[in-house]
Amino acid sequence: MTNLTTIFRQYTFDDSFQQVFVSSKFLKEYQIALTFAIDYDEDGVPTNGVFRPTWDLTKVTPLAITQFKKDHPDVNVKVFISIGNNGKEYPFCPLENKSWIANATKSLTSIVKDKEYDLQVDGIDVFYEHIEAEPSDFVECIGQVIKNLKEGEVIKVASISPSFALNKEYYFSLYKSFSSFIDWVDYQFQNEVTSVFDPNTLVNLYNKLATEFYPRKKLFAGYSAENEDWATLSPIVFFLGGMDIIKKRKGPGISILYHNYYVETHITHSCMMQPC
């Protein structure tokens, strides 16, 4: 990987980012996206925009983040709070838009600014795979919260992570309405309606997204290394297609979502960070 405009994003709930090979020879920026902040309590009851972190607070600590940055002084390290859900649990479902926006703005600000966490957060990422609301509600609520956090200088960057079923009505509508506040679009290819069996198909899907929906300069290729997602998009297909997107199509970056670094993705992740 020789394109120094390359950004790599890791979705994680723990400190496994400390185990990853990161070099300024291959990367311009490394993004740690913490999964997830949710607006549900411990019993699964909706809290209407009052977000709380569900990543491992014993492992994702201020010391861990600070040490990682010290260990990689030549790479721009950024931390994101990812709000949403992986699957159908904890869907986006505001009880009332105005109060949800107010609660979300306040609670996310508290998480970013709270000295207990103090994770040097740069931005938020919107990663809802299941939504139980109208597109107009999603656009209004999410867009206004991103706008509030940016204008209040709580965050510097914001990203959205669409997937096939929700892309056009929800995420693209959001992007059209708030494009000036959205820095990155991390499209999740593991959720395609049909399996992606070869790298060329992945590249063609990326090119179509860059033509019909989002500017190429903002568009990441996202991938899940969870075993259950391999039937849709295997590691080798994503590796080969992702390299093509970065090197030839001028895509800005890629991302990987996983929960078990050692068992599921050690080989794939290492290869994504350096030539194999």
Structural class: alpha/beta
* Proportion of residues in helical segments: 25-40%
Q: Give me the CATH architecture, please.
A: Alpha-Beta Barrel
Q: What's the CATH H-level homologous superfamily?
A: Glycosidases
| Average pLDDT figure | 90
- Hey, roughly how much beta strand do the residues contain? 15-25%
Q: Return the CATH topology.
A: TIM Barrel
Task: Note the gap between the termini.
Answer: 10 Å
Numbering strands along the chain, what is their spatial order in the largest sheet? 1-2-4-5-6-7-8-9
Note the total helix count. Answer: 7
Shape: globular
Please tell me about this protein's structure.
InterPro entries: Chitinase-like (IPR000677), GH (IPR017853), Glyco_hydro18_cat (IPR001223). It comes from Lupinus luteus. This is GH18 domain-containing protein. Residues 1-276 form the GH18 domain. This protein has 276 residues and is of the alpha/beta class. It has one domain (7-273): Glycosidases (TIM Barrel, Alpha-Beta Barrel), CATH 3.20.20.80. Helices cover 35% and strands 20% of the residues. The protein contains seven helices and nine strands, in the order βββαβαβαβαβαβαβα. α2 (97-113) runs parallel beside α3 and α5 (199-212) crosses α6 (235-247). It is globular. The termini are close together. 45% of the residues are buried.
